[in-house]
Amino acid sequence: MIALPLEVTMPDDRPRRTPLDDHPTVLAVRARPAPPAPERLTLARVRELALAAGADDAGVVSIDDPALAEERPHVERALPGVRTLVPIVLRMHVDDVRSPTRSVANVEFHRTGHEVDEVARELAVALSGLGHPSIHPAMAFPMEMESFPERSWIVSHKRVAVAAGLGTMGLHRNVIHPRFGSFVLLGTVLTTAEIEGRSPRLDFDPCISCKLCVAACPVGAIEPDGAFRFSACYTHNYREFMSGFTDFVEEVADSRDRRDFRERVSQADSASMWQSLAYGPNYKAAYCLAVCPAGEDVIAPFLADRAGYLRRVVKPLTEREETIYVVQGTDAQAHVQKRFPHKRIRVVRSSLRPRSAAHFVRALPLSFQRGPARGWKATFHLDFRGDDAAMATVRIDDGTLTVTPGLHGEPDLALSCEGAVWMEILEKKRSPLLAALTGRLKVRGDRGLLVRFARCFPS
Question: Which of 71, 160, 212, 397 has a CA that sits 20 to 30 A from residue 139's CA?
């Protein structure tokens, strides 16, 4: 038996000193007076800071706003404890953006984009200096590319700006500011500050429904009924961004020698891609912004002389001879051939390449082509198993698409396989016929619909 002491000495509650307590930095910090409490911030104060930093307009919106529900997990990951988002607006020089010499427009995009990042940084530093940790995600790049081709941006600047009442989303899927129109670039500062007051909601739509963006788009990405062909815009306008660059590299890899490469890629395309790497990727069009007359500071020439506006602003872009990048069999290819026969078509591979079967299902609305889907209807069941499992009911009905999670009703065609097998089929590593014969791909229903389905999502 172990003898216990008659008295137990309680441990000393005083903090024990460590070598760190004698470090000069620690001594210097502890000798300072206590920092002041964080400044209480109001909407007016934050706008004052933003305009002083160089913004042309700014607002605030709470992280609790229902319009930002999709943004919340992403911004909270970037700044734990974020409570408010502060969108900023910088205007661009209108005449530069409208120039038919597109290098002029692209210099303006890049210059203003860099300025947005500088202004956002200055505002974030100011808010942090007032006791509220704040960060500024990039206006455009760099992004979190490990997530690509799915969401790689931290925050949707457009969604935040609209939620804060700084504009509305136009037919061209860009924010239209009530004063500056479409000629703006956007940034967002994330802050832990609770800001008193909120930006007033915009009580009207600055868009004037002229539909000049519809007429000017070289690939027909904007349809008169409001539909948007995402894949058309992404393939052409963003040719030198992200997966368009990947396609270029694959052309290099696939070429047998320099002569074969020259047959595949023109000297101008090679030089343009080099220029994008050296000076920043260039938009191939952005005509939807260039022709937009909306906004108090922009609309006067359109109101004064509409015919002259079309002649001076719209026609130099629509009549411009240029290369248009399209995927074979898409609505964009048909649109260029019909509407702009003087423009050169270059067929490229699709830039929308899913990285999993689940991503394939989510991306269907982005790559859907209305043209091949007109005049017939069918219901498809997609059942992909494995690590990237996904089940969806896809309904095509005379040019419309509906994708519903889960399997519902009786399909006209049902596909079932491992997600990895489906990706191998999409990447042409595995024959769909051989996969069906060996039981790796199970097909039930009208197999002729498989061809029709594939035409609606060309790659």
Answer: 212
For tokens 């395309």, what's the residue?
Answer: 269
Average model confidence (pLDDT) for the chain? 92
Q: How many residues does the chain have?
A: 459
Residue 183 DSSP SS3: coil
Per domain, the residue ranges of the chain are 41-196, 212-348, 357-456
Is 445 in contact with 414 (CB distance < 8 Å)? Answer: yes
Q: What average pLDDT does range 392-408 have in this prediction?
A: 96
Q: Please give the CATH superfamily to which domain 357-456 belongs.
A: SCP2 sterol-binding domain (3.30.1050.10)
Joined tokens for residue 315: 């026609």
Contacts (Cβ under 8 Å, ≥6 apart) of 396:
373, 376, 377, 378, 380, 452, 453, 456
Secondary structure (3-state) at 212? helix
CA distances from 224 to 159, 267, 369 (A): 23, 36, 16
Q: What is the pLDDT of residues 202-243, one digit of tens each?
A: 989 999 999 999 999 999 999 988 889 999 999 999 999 877
For the stretch 337-350, pLDDT in tens is: 999 999 999 999 88
Whether the CB-CB separation of 425 and 400 falls below 8 Å is answered with: no
CATH code at 41-196: 3.40.109
Higher pLDDT, 424 or 15: 424
Q: Which residue reads 């209480």 in tokens?
A: 40
